[in-house]
Specification:
By secondary structure, the protein is α/β, with parallel strands linked by helices. The chain has 19 helices and 23 strands.
Length: about 650
């Protein structure tokens, strides 16, 4: 590192950090070049430090030989001395999310932005309030100005997207306050964008696909995703049915960078044609952590495309980054969940630039929702909220036959009822899961709770009409904690953790093999300064056979570690890697279960199934060390064979006679 004042010692230093001769004039004939530390130099230095400072030239072949947690953390701090500046995040976790310590749970399956803290939920859930009877209003209902209830449900409303954006509708104080809070958090101007709440991320993509003028204007859809996404597949399916030509970017093996030449050709081709279409761009892979330059969005807009920014995979404060502060996409989608490590339900948000509203077409799609205030989490008859918290193909709720027994999500998985009396799955893509009208089947007490909650919501909204919407403010401690840390600290924390984890995993090697074959293969960027806090990998046994990602995920869940798994696709191999392509590429026979039916046969069924881990700002060093120690257990061949046998035995179908 160089001082800002390094250079000719005869020059006056205004920073006071070096010895100077204040009255000596510089010699114009004798100049010493000033050494500079460029951004590229700093990135190279970071990668070299990461590779060298953690047990350099060491391979671990036995899980019992791993260094202790304390020893590893000491070396971690030595490699990243500035990491200590992020201690505030550890304090927030200890004070506001103490349930993670009590449950000894490592949550590496959350994608999105958390609204509330566990402590906040506990305080509000235990507040002494009562639900009024159906014949009289609640006597102690707080005024709209003082209401501070972070507990809510969602209810679907029948309205088309364009009409909602153009004319709006009756908003409760809760919805109005939540919109202001979210738009302020994302640095999005209410003067430039309109916003609607959606059931989840998939609903937002569907709404836009059904309203965008693919059919009337014969426009195209160009997506940039290196992984299979339920939301994107839904958009592609709808767009194709409405006459759109669908194109996809490709990602070059092995680093999975965007194939720039091919993408540029798709973006800028046919300049004579003014009609382009919709360019769906995520800025960062939710699975591999690969980051893409925001200038792609600028190039697309300059060439006549409308740009959809998928912000669901961005870090908590990435919207504050320099590039995004200058660029304004035409559409933006993000998702929010309620409580990290406990309640991944929530909602999605679709933002539409006001100048783009006229181009949309009226549609009969569903997915727009109201936020319905709830009184007590323990008294809620159900919660129809369902924000995606997966890296898509996802962890746990994707397969309907496993929904009743899986506990892979960081929180309980239950089937409850919504305020409208409809059965919904509490977690995941509720709009994609089968629902059953169950009001008549409930017992009287359950029905009475639903009626009481609806009356409470009605009374709440009536009070808002009298008092006005502007008076209500909602405390979202999850968002406030992120704001208090800021972009720099959150980015530094995530960067240090994910690169240490990548380095640690690559040091695990099988013993007694000719070349000590690696236990783990990482897909996408490895050690890299500007990689995202997500990781896609696979584990291989000593014979070189891949351990099934779903098996590894279930074993991790048994050890209180929540992971996900997904499918990488749209991979491009140069001739140099043709032989490797034959070894790594998989072909799925029926595509992904639980996904939209895939009509694009061939390429989309070629890819790699991977295990995924996502780090958040509340992730600490203990979490990544636990994952490393768990993966190291697969160095034991007996452990692998025993767990494979047990998994196969437990998943045999039983036939009742």
């Amino acid at each position: 590192m160089y001082s800002l004042c390094s250079g000719d010692a005869t020059q006056v230093c205004l920073h006071g950090c070096c010895m100077v001769k204040p009255f000596s004039a510089p010699d114009p004939q004798k100049r010493v070049p000033r050494p500079r530390s460029t951004a590229a130099d700093r990135r190279r230095e970071f990668a070299a430090t990461t590779a060298a400072c953690f047990f350099s030239n060491t391979q671990f072949t036995n899980h019992e030989s791993l260094p202790s947690l304390q020893e590893s953390f000491t070396q971690f701090q030595e490699a990243y001395p500035l990491y200590s500046e992020t201690e505030q995040a550890d304090q927030i976790r200890a004070q506001e999310y103490y349930h993670l310590l009590h449950s000894n749970h490592t949550c590496l399956d959350y994608i999105g932005i958390g609204l509330f803290s566990h402590c906040q939920i506990q305080i509000m859930s235990s507040s002494p309030t009562t639900i009024a009877s159906t014949s009289s209003p609640p006597s102690n209902l707080p005024s709209p100005q003082s209401l501070n209830i972070p507990l809510f449900g969602i209810s679907y409303k029948s309205v088309n997207l364009k009409a909602q954006l153009q004319y709006g509708g009756q908003e409760s104080a809760l919805e109005s306050a939540m919109k202001r809070k979210i738009m302020s958090y994302l640095n999005i101007s209410e003067n430039d964008y309109s916003m609607v709440f959606t059931a989840n991320r998939t609903s937002a993509f569907k709404l836009l696909a059904e309203s965008y003028p693919f059919q009337s204007s014969k426009k195209q859809l160009l997506t940039v995703y290196d992984y299979e996404s339920e939301a994107v597949e839904a958009m592609v399916d709808i767009s194709e049915k409405r006459g759109a030509k669908v194109m996809s970017a490709e990602f070059s093996w092995p680093r999975l960078r965007i194939n720039s030449a091919k993408l540029k050709k798709m973006v800028v081709r046919n300049k004579k044609k003014k009609k382009r279409g919709l360019f769906a761009f995520p800025l960062q892979s939710r699975m591999t952590g690969a980051r893409y330059h925001y200038l792609w969005m600028n190039i697309a807009q300059e060439n006549g495309w409308h740009v959809l920014l998928d912000a669901c995979g961005l870090g908590p404060k990435d919207m504050d980054s320099f590039g995004l502060s200058l660029f304004h996409p035409d559409f933006l989608i993000c998702s929010f969940y309620k409580v990290f490590g406990e309640n991944p339900t929530g909602f999605g948000c679709l933002f539409v630039k006001k100048s783009c509203v006229p181009i949309l077409e009226a549609s009969t799609s569903t997915g727009i929702v109201n936020l319905v205030p709830a009184k007590k989490l323990s008294q809620l008859p159900g919660d129809s909220s369902g924000t995606d918290t997966e890296p898509e193909k996802t962890s746990k709720f994707e397969f309907q036959e496993e929904l009743h027994t899986s506990s892979s999500f960081s929180g309980p998985l239950t089937i409850q009822t919504t305020l409208s009396g409809r059965f919904e799955y509490e977690q995941g893509e509720t709009s994609e899961l089968p629902t059953t009208e169950g009001t008549a089947k409930h017992d009287k007490s359950e029905t009475s709770k639903i009626i009481e909650m609806e009356k409470l919501a009605d009374l709440f909204q009536q009070n808002n009409k009298v008092s006005g919407k502007e008076g209500l403010e909602i405390e979202c401690r999850g968002l406030d904690h992120v704001d208090s840390l800021g972009l720099v600290l959150i980015s530094r924390r995530a960067r240090d953790q994910i690169n240490w984890l990548v380095n640690a995993l690559t040091k695990l090697h099988h013993p007694n093999t000719e070349e000590r074959s690696p236990l783990v293969r990482i897909y996408g960027p490895k050690i890299k300064f500007d990689r995202g806090p997500a990781l896609a990998f696979n584990v291989f046994d000593w014979k070189g056979e891949k351990i099934e990602p779903i098996l590894l995920q279930k074993l991790a869940d048994r050890n209180n570690i929540s992971l996900s798994y997904g499918f990488l696709h749209h991979l491009w191999f140069s001739d140099k890697y043709e032989a490797e392509k034959q070894r790594v590429i998989e072909r799925r026979e029926n595509g992904a279960r639980g996904m939209v039916e895939n009509k694009r046969k061939g390429k989309d069924d070629l890819g790699i199934t991977v295990v995924t881990a996502a780090l958040g700002f509340l992730t600490n060093f203990d979490d990544i060390y636990r994952l490393w120690a768990f993966i190291a257990r697969f160095l034991d061949a007996d452990f692998v064979e025993k767990e494979r046998w047990r998994y196969t035995a437990l998943n045999q179908k039983t036939i009742e006679v």
